[in-house]
Amino acid sequence: MTKTSTQALFEQLKSKHWVDLTHPFGPDSPHFPAFQPAEFKTIFTTDQDGFFVKQYTFPGQYGTHLDPPVHFYAGDQRYIDDLPIKDLVLPLVVIDHSELAAQDPDRSLTVEDLQAWEQEHGEIPAGAFVALRTDWSKRWPSQAKFENQDAAGQNHYPGWSIEALKYIYEERHAKANGHETFDTDTAVDQTDGLPAEYYVLSHGHFQVELLTNLDQVPPTGAEILISVPRAEKAPGFPVRAVAIFD
User: Fold this and answer.
1) Disulfide-capable partner of 217 in 25, 34, 200, 243 (CB 3.0 to 4.6 Å)?
2) DSSP assignment, residue 77?
3) Active site residues
4) Taking the model in full, what pTM does it have?
5) Which of 105, 121, 103 has its CA nearest to residue 172?
6) Residue 190 and residue 147: Cα distance in Å, rounded?
7) Dihedral over Cα of 176, 6, 243, 221: its sign
8) 237: closest CA among 30, 65, 29, 63?
């Protein structure tokens, strides 16, 4: 049987390099501190019932997950199931902020950082998914290491500045962004809510949080494929995200 062009394309894609950008998660996994831990409960077993089923209870923003606009902005009523499926396959750009984050976990990514990256790798393409690599994902599965609290109870982890987000969206016309931490905002910049996250979602974009393995993906040349269930009216849900590249 002759292969269609679509089948040939997917066969070619399968020959490329694939990297899973998703953490496995469970009841003991790191999570946003305001949430209760996930509960995985066995409700049927093969021995007693002839089939094996678990019941899963967790907030939508758990594990590697997607935030649609409605998560923070009531003026944009797009839930997970409203996102066009073609928007879940995007050119992937990885901005390496890991060395600076290791030196100072309170340091936000700046416009100057992005411009320095572009001098080396070229302009961020329109329609891209821009991922912030900080290597914070290497702290998984420790909640304490993810929060990185000081003696006064202040968390310390890196994130985006609003100016950097405005640059990728308003100057470079990116489609979405992602990062390895709980939040878009650097932890010390959260004294008045989450302004960077609000900016992203209130301007019609989506983001993926708690990514991993970005250190295994090149700065340019990859595509990100995001798979997410169509839970009705979900303002957030865990995803399986994969990077594909030569």
Assistant:
1) 243
2) -
3) 71
4) 0.97
5) 121
6) 13
7) negative
8) 65
